[in-house]
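Reviewers asked in the last cycle whether our approach scales beyond single polypeptides. To address this, we selected a multi-component target totalling 1082 residues and predicted its structure end to end. The input consisted of the following lines:
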Amino acid sequence: MSGSQKHLKGMSYAKYGYLFALPFILIFLFFTLYPTIYTMILGFTDAQGVGNTTSFLEEPFENFRRILTNNTFITSLKNTVILWMLNFIPQITLAMVLTAWFTARRITIKGQGFFKVLFYMPNIITAATIAILFNALFGYPNGPVNDFLVSTGLKESSVNFFVSKTGSQLIVAFIQFWIWYGNTMIVLISGVLGISPDIYEAADIDGANGLQIFFRITIPNLKTVLLYTLVTSLIGGLNMFDIPKLYLRGGPDNATKTVSVFIYDLAFTGKQQFARAAAASMLMFIIISLCSAFLFWLLRDKEAIALEKMKKQEMKEKRKGMSGL
Amino acid sequence: MKKALSLLAALSLMASFTACGGDTSETADTQSEASSSSEAATDESSEESTSDGSKIKLNVYAFTDEVPNMIKKFMDTHPDFAAKYEMNDTQIPTTDGLYQPALDQALADGSVDLFAAEAAFVLKYTQGEASKYAAPYEDLGIDVNQKIKDAEIAQYTVDIGTNPDGKVVALGYQATGGAFIYRRSIAKDAFGADDPATVSAAIGGGTQSWDKFYEAAEQLKGKGYGIVSGDGDIWHAVENSSDQGWIVNDKLHIDPKREAFLDLSKQLMDNDYHNDTTDWTDDWYADMAGTGSKGILGFFGPAWLINYTIGKNCGGSAVGEGTYGDWAVCEPPIGFFWGGTWLLGTNDSQNKEAVGEIIEWITLNTEEDGLQYMWANGTFNGEGGTKDAVASNVVMKKSDGTLDFLGGQDMFDAFVPANNYANGKNLTQYDEKINSFWRDQVRMYTSGQKSREDAIADFKQSVLDELDIEAE
Amino acid sequence: MSKNAPGKNKWTVAYTVFQYIVCILLTCLSLLPFIIMIVNATRSSAQIQAHAISFLPGTNFSANMKVLTTKTFHPLTGFFNSAIIAVSATFLSVYFSTMTAYSIVAYDWKFKKAFFALIMAVLMIPTQVSSIGFYQFMYKINMTNNFLALILPAIAAPATVFFMRQYMIPALPMSIVQSARIDGASEFRTFNQIVIPMCKPGMATQAIFTFVTQWNNLFMPMILLTEKDKWTMPMMVSQLSGDMYKTEYGAVYLGLLLTVLPIFVIYFILSKYIIAGVALGGVKE
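The resulting structure, written as structure tokens, was:
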């Protein structure tokens, strides 16, 4: 017994870490690395259009400078942030509430399996279909929403949602919210299901009520999955593309033009300014990285970090002791 | 800070992977070897088949099945040709914006023999960025200048298909010269008669000015009608009437006639001359069936708008149902064209003569067994098909464009002259994008959210930001 | 469950009613697009263009089916191709991502932190532009018209790895792994027979997400697969609406419906994990 334990301690498992990460690394090197580096380099060239020769720019950061002074880029950045906030805050709130309801141990909702399955369904349909649907819903002057507004007397005459900047932003944000809340909810629920039932049983024995259990046990244990949700919706939100592109092609008056739509338009339409689009991509990458780093810092696991520090301290002292000998 | 450091570490990790990674690159090599060897195998097999005396592949790129179906028809009717060649067609729709990237890639690889281009982007391939790939029709073995004269091909289609060296590299089969397509019952009520001459006179047909058109709009308003469905309807005529295109000497140029669209659109809006719809939305279609907010006199459009759009959305399929049979065509105040497909062969093609034969049959043949005759008379898929205006006036003159939908009118009477009025010289390769910026800003001005000056300034800004083209 | 205080009861009832109202409203919102899709699949193009939204079915179902099959729409080929790509990509993605996440959570190795940072960095790269590099690369190495170009990249799925890592940290007690080691199980066996069953709920959700994304993927297949017998379902549907001037909307909706059906099947199979929660796969300490 003691022999085998010794053996265990002495054995290094690090090589399995490398081994298990190997498939990811290989595929990454083969399929992802080249396009990524290609994009990075492209940002410093004058690549544009079809079949033209490409060379490096004399002023290496010209593309970056031109993007940062590009009004439409700045507008699209603002739009992206607005659209993300408008959809993410209600989305995470609703997803949390539903998670609390569907994982509650006291008051169980009948047919919750049915609801859980249904709420994810908007995520199944392609964005193009959803864009067509909402375009028809908000038709002007006689779409279903306008018919409703006029017949109920909420509005005297039809509203042209297609030329309303705020209206379009709200609609796009709503679509995003509606497509993604189910997805977020499923992620959170699966996180709760991963929490050991023992902890809950202990809380039950201690006589904690539903709210206490949710805030004292579920949330803290959900922190890592919550970080995932925050970071991925941040990344997804800042890369928002399909719905803004398909609903009104970024209009009206650029009100729903997000950075991704801007980048796509630069690279794939008109002059096909690949180089400038690549520069905009890299800038976006930097912005997203900074925001994500902030989230990681915000939700860092203080106890784990403290524990690690202690360990290191111990090691140091040990070494000191050793050298002292 | 810590995260920034680990990011740096990530980057250096990436760098070290690329630097060392001995065995990883080996796997990559074997993988590509495997795929290239499988490719070599397919190459061999295709070579084998050609040496056996069987077929050579013609690579065709198209955005719908229309052109591939024509080529199939050509092969069916030309068995000698079909014995030698077969078509390998790639169809990628334009709706998802993928046709051009894929086509460009294939063109750069030299793996395209023949491709189709739509009016919205054809100039990129005939006169713009990608015109270096297009082979002059002469090089495909077509006596193009003589044939164009013989067939009386609509001049605007030739202008669009001519490259900067003055050589024809693209022609269409359809002609998309536009006319004014109006409701007979509404014309009768407003102008007292529904014949094309009366209506054309009332709306100022051929006057090159919008004055009479707006007088007619006032007259229609008195009877409770609108003249068009939305401002998008007059845009194509306005666009095509300008003396110069959007780009003059590499600078953005706003032609006075295009700038006037701001005022024309505002006038329609402020005077309630239309239903304020947007083209290709439900309410626009509703005006074709006569079920919109108020009755609409008509639409500006080419023959395809009648057959594919108004016809399908008129609310019926026989005289008496919906607005079927209540339509007629007359001369518009200003000539224009809208849409169309052009065919191009490539310089890199190894089968130029074969490509030339197909292209000639589709774009220049005026015989009754040529494509255009079948297309004009609706016999391409057997009797009773959809009739459409074609590029050759010779073909249209010997064809029958009578439609029950138009109350028995022969639509070619209106579309032959319409094709001659259309202008193919004021277009640029970025028009699709510039037009959408322009119409967006016009909508902002018309809906009262922006001043005229701001709309123009923001338009210039958008063009600068996204196309890197400065204003004059 | 507990009815200890009668005064509390009224509030509990009101609260429950509120819960059900919210759930039913959300259900209606979820069902709306599907109902419209089904109804429109039975209507003619003209009917749809006149009123895109209607709850009254039409009589054009068989006519739409005819249009669908005379066009370049071959449901069986498309289904088969889509299934090969989506199923294998999902399987590889979920399995290897779990493995990668496990390597980060369970082992201490030198470049672990840098590796995780790299994964996060990959996750943050905007995809619009790097796709240019990707398809040019695929052209260069002749992997166009090869399903592997669409399947293999799924192995390096940063979002899935990230999720599985976050999921494992609280859900995977290392003591179980330790005891497996003591029992003499190899690391690989421990992973397959102990770790994977414990991660099932997390893997199931990721499988659903990956499958849906892969099944609906249009951009890359469209550019990489030029041979018609390799087309996927969404490509065929997109082909139907390729010509905006004469789109057959009824057939498009029918095509969309046929495309979405297989997702339903997979989703309902996998959803048992998110409904019931096979928490900890029966390995209870």
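Residues 179-336+399-467 of chain B form a domain with the D-Maltodextrin-Binding Protein; domain 2 fold (CATH 3.40.190.10). We regard this as preliminary and will revisit it once experimental data from Aim 1 are available.
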